[in-house]
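quick one: flavin-adenine dinucleotide bound model?
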Amino acid sequence: MNRDGRSYWLREALADDEAPAPPLVGPAECDVAIVGGGYTGMWTAYALTQRAPGIRIVLLEQDICGGGPSGRNGGFVHGWWDQLPLLVDLYGSEQALELAWAADESVAGIADFCTRHAVDAWVRRAGYLQMSASVAQDGEWEQTVETCKRLGVAEQYYELSGEEARRRCDSPVFRGAAFMPNAATVQPARLARGLRHVLVERGVRIHEGTRVQRVVDGSPMRVLTRGGEVAAPQVVLGLNAWAAGWPSFRTSLLAWGSHIVLTEPIPDRLAALGWVGGEGISDSRFTIHYFRTTADGRIAFGAGVGAAGYGGRIGTRFDHDERASERARAGFARLFPMLRDVRFVDAWGGPIDISSDRLPAIGSRAGGRLHFAHGYSGNGVGPAFLAGRILAARIDGGDDRLARLPIVNRRAKAFPPEPMRYIGARVIREALIRHDEATDAGRRPGLIVRFLAALPRLLGYRLGP
Ligand SMILES: Cc1cc2nc3c(=O)[nH]c(=O)nc-3n(C[C@H](O)[C@H](O)[C@H](O)COP(=O)(O)OP(=O)(O)OC[C@H]3O[C@@H](n4cnc5c(N)ncnc54)[C@H](O)[C@@H]3O)c2cc1C
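yep, here:
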C-alpha cells in the first residue's frame, strides 16, 4: 500500500483515469438506487442497463468505485465448481449443477464484457490450480473431483499428478493439484474502473465520496447521506464486508482481512519456474495462499491471514497490517524458496465478507424493494457478476431463471451477536492461521489450536479444517 493508501492495482488503473465523480448534494430521484461501487453494485447497474436501456440509476460510493476489495483483490475469476459438494449438500444434485453452471458463465461473461467495451483488464483465461503444499493438504480436492465425476462434469475440476502440477509451476513443495480449466485472472482494478466508465457512458449517475447513512423503508425507499437523499422504488446494497456493520445483516457476516504482497518484475525467474501459462494458483490451506503472475512478470501473492473486525467496523488495519504482510511473505518464502532474494515492492489488504457456509447471501427484503448480495467469503470476482445479473432480474420482475436460482433468499446459520461474534472470529482466526502454519511445518498443531480450529464445524458453521 502506497502513501496515497491505494493498492498497486488501483494506482496502475488510475494512472490515466478521470477525477472522482462529485458527492451527492441535495435530493435526487431515480428508478434504482445502488449503494456500493464495487463489482456487486456495478454489475447490477450494468445488467439493469442491458435489460432496460434508459433506466435511471443513481450509484453512491463512499470512496471511489473500485476503492474497496473490487480494486484490490487477487484477480482470480472462477465460479463454484470447487464448491460443488457443498452445493449438492444444500440443494441436491440437480439444483447444485444449475447453480454451478450459472456461476461458471461469469468467467466468459466478464471476458466478453471486456472485449465488447474495449476494457483492458489483462484477462487471461488460463485456469486455476489448487495445489497441495504439505502432507496435510494432500487430496484436499478429492471429494470435489469425485462429485464432479459423479455429476458428469469431470472436465470442470480434475486431479493432476505432482509432476503435472510442477510442470505448470515448479515449486519443490507442490505435491499434486486439482485443475479448474474455466478460470481466469484479471487486473481487478482495471476491471472495476472499466466497468465504471461503461456505466457513466450508459447514463448511470455516480456519486463518489458519498457515504450512505441509512435506508428508510417506504414507497419510495429513501437513501440518506450526509448531504443529500435519493428517493427510489428499489434499492440495492452492494456493501460487501461493510454490511457486517448494518443492523439487519449483523449476524449474517463477519469480516476477516486478506493481504497481498507484490514482487518486483521477475519474468526470467518465472520462466525458470515454467510458470508462464498465466494460471492462478493457490495452496489448500484454510487460511489460503493464492498467487498469480502479472502482465509485466511480477507475482502477486495473497494470504488469508488478516485480523477480524469488531462490530462490522472496517478500520485501517484491513488496508495495511504489517503482521499479516509478514505472514504472507513467510508463505511466499516457503512456497518459493528459490525466490528468497526477490524484492517486494508493495503490500496491501482488504476485508473479506465471511458467511457461515462461505456462499453469498443474495436476495431481497422489504417486500422486494431492498436487494442485496454479500458474503462471498473471498471468492467474489466471478460470483459478483452472477449476483448482479440475479439482482437485476429480480428488480426487472417477470419470470426469469436467474431470479429463481436456489441460492436466492436462502438462510444460512447465523453468527452470534457482538461481542461474541468478534471474540469468536478473532480467537478462531488466529487458531486457524496457527493450525495451518503448524501443518505447513510438518508439525501436529497443539491441542488448544486443534480444538479452536475445529470449533466452527462443531458448532455447525462450514468454516475451518
Ligand atoms: C486482498 C483480497 C484478495 C481477494 N482476492 C480475490 C480473488 O482473487 N478472487 C475472488 O473471487 N475474490 C477475491 N477477493 C474478494 C473480492 O474482492 C470480493 O468478493 C468482491 O470484490 C466483492 O465485490 P463487492 O462489490 O461486493 O464489494 P466491494 O468491492 O467491497 O464493494 C463494496 C463497496 O461498498 C462501499 N460502501 C460500503 N459501505 C458504504 C456506505 N455506507 N455508503 C456508500 N458506500 C459504501 C465500499 O466503499 C466498497 O467500495 C479478495 C478480497 C481481498 C480483500
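The chain is about 35% helix and 20% strand.
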